[in-house]
Write a structure and sequence with these properties.
InterPro entries: Bact_response_regulator (IPR050595), CheY-like_superfamily (IPR011006), Sig_transdc_resp-reg_receiver (IPR001789). It is globular, with a radius of gyration of 13 Å. Helices cover 46% and strands 21% of the residues. By secondary structure, the chain is an alpha/beta fold. Helix 4 links the parallel strand 4 and strand 5.
Length: 120
Amino acid sequence: MVRILLAEDEEILRMLIVDTLEDEGYEIVEAADGEEAISYLNKEQFDLLIVDYMMPGKTGLEVIKEVKSNPTLTSMKILMLSAKSQQEDQQKVLAVGADMFLSKPFSPMYLIELLEELLG
């Protein structure tokens, strides 16, 4: 089973994503901020990280930088969610190591399509 860490500070959006992805058979672990996400990443293995750009504690960019600096995590796929959808924001996210960028708001079905593409 594919394990996903979802780091999103908006509880309602987190619940929507969890419900959508669990219905598709994914195992989801939730983190409400960047610090909690890092804590999970240091203790458990995940196939994919879905991370929000703007979160308390550590931003999504900071989380990605920590993931990419950890040799045991470099193969994990990363999808960045953000309401910041300007081209320069997307380029910044991809430059630090995210595999894909998804602008908010988004369709849950589109999220599933992106995950299938990312995970093969």
